[in-house]
């Protein structure tokens, strides 16, 4: 049953925005695992473990997003087919090996997803769905922190 007190258009906008974010988060997790499995270089262990930790945190965010879709009365759309069609992320390069390349690739994707999450905050805030806004704010904060951790390996 949808949240009482929210207008139908707010619920519809929130569900659509949450599902778009869910697709991005699932795609980001796959990119993180690809990097985690294939990274090589002088900083292997630090980066390998960092990618795994970020993978876990992105998964927690995806779970929170999917649960909010359910709370609002929608269907969480996280299948491989949906993610392949909806995620706004460039394909991850399968030829990447060196740690610096993986760090750059993941950094770019985290920054892109972070930007879309900030846009989601604005979109949902206009509808008055403060519960969903709060989820996006927390997600934005975590992505920014993870991006900082990863970009630190690039000297940024």
Automatic annotation (TrEMBL):
UniProt key word DNA-binding: yes
InterPro entries, sorted: DPS_DNA-bd, Ferritin-like, Ferritin-like_SF, Ferritin_DPS_dom
Every Ferritin/DPS domain range: 15-156
Matches recorded under Gene3D superfamilies: 1.20.1260.10
Similarity comment: family membership: Belongs to the Dps family.
SUPFAM superfamilies given in the database record: Ferritin-like
Keywords: DNA-binding
GO molecular function: DNA binding; ferric iron binding
DNA-binding is among the record's keywords: yes
Taxonomic superkingdom: Bacteria
Transmembrane segments: none
Name of this chain's protein: Starvation-inducible DNA-binding protein
């Amino acid at each position: 049953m949808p949240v009482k007190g929210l207008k139908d258009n707010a619920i519809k906008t929130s569900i659509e925005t949450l599902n778009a974010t869910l697709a991005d988060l699932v795609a980001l997790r796959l990119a993180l695992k690809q990097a985690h499995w294939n990274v090589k270089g002088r900083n292997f262990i630090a980066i390998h473990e960092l990618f795994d930790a970020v993978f876990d945190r992105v998964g927690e965010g995806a779970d929170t997003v999917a649960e909010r879709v359910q709370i609002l009365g929608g269907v969480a759309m996280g299948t491989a087919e949906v993610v392949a069609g909806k995620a706004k992320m460039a394909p991850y390069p399968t030829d990447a090996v060196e740690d610096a390349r993986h760090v750059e690739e993941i950094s770019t994707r985290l920054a892109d997803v972070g930007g879309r999450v900030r846009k989601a905050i604005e979109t949902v805030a206009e509808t008055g769905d403060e519960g969903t806004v709060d989820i996006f704010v927390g997600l934005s904060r975590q992505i920014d922190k993870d991006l900082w951790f990863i970009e630190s390996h690039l000297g940024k």
